[in-house]
Amino acid sequence: MSKRLSEILNRPVEVDPVITGVTADSRKVAAGTLFAALPGTKVDGAAFAPGAIAAGAAAVLGPVGMDSFSVPTVKVEDPRRAYALASATFWSTQPATCIAVTGTNGKTSVAGFCRQIYATLGHKAASMGTLGVVVSEASQPDRQLTPPGLTTPDAADVAEMMARLAAEGVTHLAVEASSHGVDQRRLDGVTLKAAGFTNFTQDHLDYHGSMESYRQAKLRLFEDLLPMGTTAVLNADSEAFPVFAAAAVSSGQSVVSVGEAGQGLRLLSRTPTPQGQTLVVEVAGETHEIALPLAGAFQASNVLVAAGLCIATGEAPAAVLKALESLEGAAGRLQRVGRGARGGEAYVD
Description:
The chain is an alpha/beta fold. The protein has helices at residues 5-9, 49-54, 79-91, 107-120, 155-167, 179-183, 205-208, 211-225, 241-250, 297-312, 317-323; strands spanning 3-4, 18-19, 21-23, 33-36, 59-63, 73-76, 97-102, 125-129, 132-136, 143-144, 172-176, 194-197, 231-235, 254-259, 265-273, 276-283, 286-292, 335-339, 345-348.
């Protein structure tokens, strides 16, 4: 695969070499690669540019103010976003329906639930996040394509994996959008049909520095990445709901609120059972009883966000809610492992 530098950057360049790959990792550079010299928190990618050029890099992308090199050097205001968009253009394809979910807790579960729901409803689906990339389809065992790793992978890795998934027939992809990943533009090349929000509590202050900065990173998913006219599925029971709803509305998105205070999917009741819990949910004036094989109020919240995302991307509400009854939770997330001889339940959390 190869494309001209001007094509993948979507801008004219004085010298227009053929590009055979895109990466920000100098160790992955080969002949014809566009090397992204990204500024980091500890090291500057520009320091690795000479080595990348020696390894065959055909061009370097970096921030304004960076030195020029012996190969075409393109300098932009936001090199991380440019890198993500260049990667997406280079690989050029992705599953037709891509959704993302952010929040302090629940991202892994929601992404996995969406994958399972889509597969139950007849789609070949995948999830990408902390537990790696997993592919599901009806009547087939799940396939683990990559091992557990970063919640949101590098932008070029995201683009390459999306192209790989699309090539093998995956039509629906659910992605975890970590605050680090959104802030570092790793998902800027993903064309989203809907995005979800689970909750917001203190975390990652070592990176963000303040709760405001942390919140703003998550809000960017709705303010900058989710296109106008799409749908934001938000947990109405979170104290941060008003802020995220305002961001979505001001960005031209429809809001589907879920939870006990939700309007789109309203949780009317939740009753624990030995197998999990029974949920009663109201959708569009109709009441549905769901035998959810997962325990905990947090899982009830997670499945409603997942259901909202699937409905927002065109699935029938009744079919989605029925599919919740066959969900499997993420390993180690209040995972039921069995029942003792005297009726006691055992969970791993």
